[in-house]
Amino acid sequence: MKLTLAPLEGVIDHLVRELLTGIGGFDLCITEFLRVTQSLQPERVFYKICPELHQGGRTKAGVPVRMQLLGQSPQYLSENANLAIELGSHGIDLNLGCPSKIVNTNKGGAVLLKEPETIYQIVSQMRKAIPKQHIFSVKIRLGWDEPTSVFEIADAIEQAGASELTIHARTKVDGYKAEQIKWHLINEVKQKQSIKIIANGEVWQRDDATQCRLLSGCDDLMIGRGVLAMPNLANVIKHDSVPLTYPELLTLLVEYSRYEIAGDKGQYYPNRIKQWMVYLKFQYPQIKTLFRELRIFQTTDPIVELLHREVQIHG
What we know:
Layout: E1 3-5, H1 14-23, E2 28-35, H2 43-49, E3 65-70, H3 74-87, E4 92-96, H4 101-105, H5 116-129, E5 136-141, H6 150-159, E6 164-168, H7 183-192, E7 196-200, H8 206-216, E8 221-223, H9 225-229, H10 233-239, H11 246-264, H12 269-280, H13 286-294, H14 300-314
Parallel strand pairs: 1-2, 1-8, 2-3, 3-4, 4-5, 5-6, 6-7, 7-8
């Protein structure tokens, strides 16, 4: 089984990738997306999204990182893909699943699921431009509003020559509603296509991973929100590890705070740790009380003080 750390825009940045891959269990990371419009982006943009390019395209734990692109122009997607590879990205991932209204309004992400022929043209031209020895993966949802449209979409992507396909088992309209997960449709795609498929969506516990693999027929998984809720989820899934205790989690959050504050001088830290805690509340009820206290602060120092106080109480 191979586990990929999913990109979560505005939450799983390079600092979180470093922290989570340091815990262990992951075989690959996908970056937050690089938005491609009508230009070749300057190198500094690639390094900002993926500082791991400075160290061979790997996290400090040695896990390879693949840059994700989002856009609609085959020419500029191809040019940016090749630059990413030249700089050290371990392959390229194309985002065709982002449900963001802003992204979709600009004809990027999931909105393209309405147009399988357009997807074919984009993927085909990118595959021709990207050297064959490099993996070119695509991430999709089941469709825009009709889940069975995944069959035509997946066929277009395979016919266009992509190496791998990650399927989030919900439509764009489904959003993140747990009851709408349809892992079984991934299996139906596998029966029709020969492309390597990775399953994604609604994996929060080891039992979820087992059920997802069973129903989807996929050996490999991509996990995102679940690992934010349980930071050692990859090891729990792969090695039957015990979830981090609450004191261990607090120690991890203090370490994360040090990473994040040093990384951006605390500019984004208050928002990012609050976003992370929204997910942590799913697995650690104790976080709810801490979050109620912490959410009122807009600066770094009082948040860090609260975390250290919590460590002293529960350590």
